[in-house]
Amino acid sequence: MKTGLLYGIVASSKTRVRCVFCGVFIPKANKCIEQHTNGAKHKENIELMTENGISFANDMLYCKPCRIELSEEESVTKHIESDGHANWVAAMEDLIDGEFISLDPYLNSDKEDVYCEVCHSSLQCTLQNIEAHVNGINHRTNITERLKPLNGIFPVDNDDEVWCKVCNVFIDNTARSILDHIDDDDEHMEWFAEIEDLIEEQDVSIESFLANEYEHNAFCNRCNLEISCNPQTIEAHVNSDAHLSHFP
Ligand SMILES: [Zn+2]
Ligand SMILES: [Zn+2]
Ligand SMILES: [Zn+2]
Ligand SMILES: [Zn+2]
Ligand SMILES: [Zn+2]
């Protein structure tokens, strides 16, 4: 990204310049300009531009998500708070939540695409397009495949079902019923919430328990010790003197 003293500053009159990002006028003196462009507010606005897909070219601000050039009266913050922009951001974040699609490369470059990590494909970043993609059968299937080893879901002999190791239940082997189980089953979600709460910042990992069908243990990296992977044992372990004495 371009920076430098005059980044965002355009001529206004004989005595004043205008900061396009902040929507303010500044006396036309190097010292004043420098003070402004080194200020926290100005830097914060540059950061907001990067996070919101707003770029600066030919003395104008352009918002890529909204596909408009901002008028002279509109500062970066004013535009971001406008309904059109705020709604786009909210709708987009809602669509890509949990979908392994990151908006950042789209927002802070001049790319028109985002990348779907589970489908290994680029897609044009419009609400309509992303909505169609995340609801598509290929994407749902790929998401399911990605989530299985993170959720303790395993194939069984008959292809019609899968097995959830965490809940010890069989589930129909369709993307929809597996995702329903992962996202909506109370017992499943409670187990994860409880364990994640217990192991947070405790260096205890449950990845191999979830990814390997025959692994019974979680692993405490702090104590270099295997512990039976259930809430009771993990709770007892993270509160034990042995574990606490290994505090880094
Ligand atoms: Zn400024
Ligand atoms: Zn916008
Ligand atoms: Zn996808
Ligand atoms: Zn489950
Ligand atoms: Zn430990």
3D architecture notes:
The chain has helices at residues 30-37, 40-52, 76-81, 83-96, 104-107, 127-135, 137-151, 175-184, 186-199, 207-211, 231-238, 241-245, and strands spanning 9-11, 16-19, 24-27, 54-57, 60-63, 68-69, 101-102, 113-116, 121-124, 153-155, 161-164, 169-172, 204-205, 217-220, 225-228. It folds into three domains: 1-80, no CATH class; 82-135, no CATH class; 196-248. 23% of the residues are buried. The strands form five sheets. Strands 1-2-3 form a three-stranded antiparallel β-sheet, with helices on one face. Strands 4-5-6 form a three-stranded antiparallel β-sheet. A three-stranded antiparallel β-sheet has the order 7-8-9. It is α+β, with helices and mostly antiparallel strands and 248 residues long. It is elongated. Strand 5 (60-63) and strand 6 form a beta hairpin. Helix 4 runs parallel beside helix 6 (127-135). The protein is built from twelve helices and 15 strands. Bound molecules: zinc ion (ZN) (5 copies).
Relevant terms:
3-stranded antiparallel sheet, binds zinc ion, 12 helices, 45% helix, alpha+beta, 3 domains, 248 residues, 15 strands
